[in-house]
């Protein structure tokens, strides 16, 4: 959008407003306080103020060295136009007319102040950028007399950030029970449901036939097989972390399709602390996850569960 420019004459170290126009002393920095032409433009929505003020006499003395070196000292502050708060980490760049890169650059400090030394006289494009504020760009002319102090007001601007997508993966049932953590230790023998299916086991106790040192003792008619280890050790049986009645056979309460995973510890020294109750061995069975499939009704499992309840009542009397 093209903005029409009006001509006016004001003192170079002052500013004034007239009928919606802002007159800035900025277009000529570092000149004598005399009459000078100044271009003005209607205030846009992203209005900013660049106002110059003469530095104190004491501050002007060091500038003699800068004049001899071919430039002047430019200091200033960057503030929020809406409230006047100082803006830290704003970047101020001076790019000479016709140049592609800035010749002078500074960052505002915590109090919004900045300092540029040895800025030669000439025409520059001043740009100011700060996170959360609209970029500012203005053409200025730097004179030969300084130092010059500048106040720059910039307009806040909301930042449009890319959407943040958070993906959460629920831990599986076996992860929550610590099954995989114990498996990684290499202590014990572990079976997953897939291994039960691959072996086509008819009973849960059949899986023990593949474990060195384990023995499956078949019972008579109407009885179930018992699992023992070396020395006739009968392992403690845990189902979903709960210890069962001593002497309970895994086949009495579980079928193959009930099992999600199983841990077998063949010696007392290998049993994890949470399952060490003084037994010589331990078998920990984890049943199917919720929704993992229907479990057929079993009178045997119902009878064993009733036995648990009656045993608990008898022990608490």
Alpha plus pi helix count:
7
Q: How many domains make up the 3D coordinates?
A: 2
N to C succession of SSEs: EEEEEHHEEEEEEEHHEHEEEEHEEH
Q: Estimate what percentage of residues fall within beta strands.
A: 25-35%
Strand order of the largest sheet: 13-18-19-16-17
- Please summarize the sheet with the most strands: 5 strands, mixed
Give the C-alpha Rg: 42 Å
Name of the level-1 CATH class of the largest domain: Mainly Beta
CATH architecture of the largest domain: Sandwich
Mass-distribution shape = rod-shaped
CATH topology group of the largest domain: Immunoglobulin-like
CATH homologous superfamily annotation of the largest domain: Immunoglobulins
Structural class: alpha+beta
Description:
By secondary structure, the protein is of the alpha+beta class. It has 2 domains: 6-154, Immunoglobulins (Immunoglobulin-like, Sandwich); 173-316, TonB-dependent receptor, plug domain (Ferric Hydroxamate Uptake Protein, Chain A, domain 1, Beta Complex), CATH 2.170.130. The chain contains 7 helices and 19 strands. The strands form 5 sheets. A 5-stranded mixed β-sheet has the order 13-18-19-16-17. The model is unreliable at 1-28, 32-60 and 291-299 (pLDDT under 50).
């Amino acid at each position: 959008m093209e903005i029409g420019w009006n001509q006016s004459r004001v003192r170079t170290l002052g500013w004034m407003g007239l009928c919606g126009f802002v007159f800035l002393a900025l277009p000529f920095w570092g000149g004598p306080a005399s009459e000078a032409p100044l271009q003005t433009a209607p205030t846009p929505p992203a209005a900013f103020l660049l106002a110059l003020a003469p530095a104190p006499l004491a501050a002007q003395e060091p500038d003699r060295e800068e004049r001899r070196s071919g430039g002047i000292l430019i200091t200033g502050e960057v503030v929020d136009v809406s409230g006047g708060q100082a803006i830290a980490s704003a970047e101020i760049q001076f790019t000479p007319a016709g140049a592609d890169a800035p010749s002078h650059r500074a960052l505002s400090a915590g109090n919004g102040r900045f300092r540029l030394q040895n800025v030669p006289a000439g025409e520059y494009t001043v740009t100011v950028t700060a996170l959360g504020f609209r970029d500012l760009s203005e053409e200025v002319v730097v004179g030969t007399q300084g130092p010059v102090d500048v106040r720059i007001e910039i307009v806040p601007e909301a930042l449009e950030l890319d959407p943040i997508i958070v993906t959460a993966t629920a831990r599986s049932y076996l992860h929550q029970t610590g099954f995989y953590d114990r498996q990684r230790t290499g202590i014990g023998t572990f079976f997953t449901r897939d291994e039960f299916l691959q072996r086509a086991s008819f009973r849960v106790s059949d899986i023990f036939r593949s474990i060195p040192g384990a023995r499956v003792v078949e019972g008579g008619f109407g009885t179930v097989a018992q699992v023992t280890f070396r020395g006739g050790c009968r392992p403690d049986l845990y189902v979903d972390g709960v210890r069962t009645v001593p002497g309970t056979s895994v086949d009495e309460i579980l079928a193959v399709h009930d099992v999600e995973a199983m841990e077998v510890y063949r010696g007392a020294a290998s049993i994890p602390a949470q399952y060490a109750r003084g037994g010589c061995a331990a078998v920990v069975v984890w049943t199917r996850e919720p929704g993992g499939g229907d479990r057929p009704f079993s009178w045997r499992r119902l009878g064993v569960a009733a036995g648990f309840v009656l045993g608990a009542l008898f022990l608490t009397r």
